[in-house]
Amino acid sequence: MIDATKDGRNLVITLQGVDPFVVHPLPGHAGRQITDTYLTTLSGQTADLTAALQMAVDGAVLDGDRWVPRPEAEQINFNRLGMELSQDEAEMIIMPAFFWQTILGMDGVRAYIEGGEGLAGTLKASGALTARLGLLARRTSPRTA
Predict the structure, then answer these.
(1) Strand 2-7 versus strand 10-15 pairing type
(2) Are 136 and 52 in contact (CB under 8 A)?
(3) pLDDT attached to residue 1
């Protein structure tokens, strides 16, 4: 239901019937921070996932030693998501934007889309992210261990 392409350094996500969303790349340190926040929430710990997702779609500013979302007036994509789309549709924009901002880049976007988008796509891309970061234990056969 979505299409995602790179246009220069930007990610362009298109949902049928809606003007495209243009997502600018985060600085590497901000991308690492939102990835850490996401992984923290996956492990059941409390973290500000909303702020991480806001940064994924609209960028971040450095506040001391932490990256924070841009001021609300500058959150063009996040505001559009809340005003124009259902929560289900908004997820189809936010999650590929998030995975694009991680070390996975376009591979994360493709994993999300090819995984079926929504929850299934998020799980597939999350698995790819944790595997890429070496967070999954390798399973070996008892015969080869």
Answers:
(1) antiparallel
(2) no
(3) 85
